[in-house]
Amino acid sequence: MGPHPAVAAIRLAVRRVLHDVLTEHPADPAAPRDAHPLVLVACSGGADSMALASALAFEARKLPVRAGGITVDHGLQDGSDSRAGEVADRMAALGLGPVEAVAVTVGREGGPEAAARDARYAALDAAAERHGATAILLGHTRDDQAETVLLGLARGSGIRSLSGMAAVSGARGRYRRPFLRLDRQTVRTACIAQELAVWDDPHNSDPAYTRSRLRHEGLPALEKALGKGVVEALARTAQLSRDDADALDTWAADAETTARDEAGALACDKLSGLPPAVRRRVLRRAVIAEGAPAGSLFARHIEELDRLITGWRGQGAINLPGRVEARRQGGRLVIRQG
């Protein structure tokens, strides 16, 4: 008798990702095991990441891959250090190794959710470098993707925000998300079927957090009004948006070259002939190249910059994040850091 269908689903999803990793980083099956690529799972102890840890441990045994785990203690709740230790012990019991619990200090920049995320990813990046890991698996599901799309829609910051989370992201494709095509219920069922102990983070149901309100109030309301296919439709929107955004980014990269004059400056007449979606991407790329932090550059900044091209009325210089200044001068767009 085979595994429970939910268990089979999570294992297949992880197997596909491990095959992708091995295609990109071939391993000699005859080489000593400590020479095989290392894949880590980021595990909070919740159902999604525990299911991922169990699937990684199972599939890695059959492949020339080493499998380990990292759990991050954000220090935001009493007893979080001991809980992180318990999660590390559970991963070790699954057969993962190396296993590590890492404590971080969460700042305040960007709000509590963003600050915790930034601290977590910094810790995961450092762990990957420390252990020489080829990839880190993250347990985001299709439901998480749907929530991300809705949050992007609420921000009104364009098609890239609607693209949600990529299946592969980070430096050198470090982060992999095997469960983006699986719903949260399937993943939780896999934990129950395997009798995995899981911990439900109270922050996930705390209405003080935007994503929590969306999960427990917003999405259920949408499903009640529009039907049960909302999550799947939003996830499909993310993929379609990502494909479109990638194509526009490629177009913009080519257009930036042709929009420059002999001296290498952006020529306003050449920019004005581009479609708005492409032109704004060219402008965004240009100001980031001059030192503007991408995370601080919002749609309103690009719209104001775009008016130097499409609505020129003799405006003065525009101040952008990162002490970057942009001005129109002699038919050129001059961007420099002050």
UniProtKB/TrEMBL annotation:
CDD domains, A to Z: TilS_N
Sequence ranges assigned to domain tRNA(Ile)-lysidine synthase substrate-binding in this UniProt record: 266-333
EC numbers: 6.3.4.19
Residue ranges of every copy of the tRNA(Ile)-lysidine/2-thiocytidine synthase N-terminal domain listed in the record: 39-217
Free-text comment on this protein's domains from its UniProt entry: The N-terminal region contains the highly conserved SGGXDS motif, predicted to be a P-loop motif involved in ATP binding.
Signal sequence annotation: none
Protein residues bound to ATP: 44-49
Catalytic activities: cytidine(34) in tRNA(Ile2) + L-lysine + ATP = lysidine(34) in tRNA(Ile2) + AMP + diphosphate + H(+)
Family: Belongs to the tRNA(Ile)-lysidine synthase family.
GO molecular function annotations of the record: ATP binding; tRNA(Ile)-lysidine synthase activity
Role of this protein: Ligates lysine onto the cytidine present at position 34 of the AUA codon-specific tRNA(Ile) that contains the anticodon CAU, in an ATP-dependent manner. Cytidine is converted to lysidine, thus changing the amino acid specificity of the tRNA from methionine to isoleucine.
Localization: Cytoplasm
Name of the protein this chain belongs to: tRNA(Ile)-lysidine synthase
Single GO BP term: tRNA modification
Organism: Streptomyces termitum
Domain of life assignment: Bacteria
Main location: cytoplasm
Record keywords, A-Z: ATP-binding, Cytoplasm, Ligase, Nucleotide-binding, tRNA processing
First-tier enzyme category under EC: ligase
Cellular component aspect of the GO annotation: cytoplasm
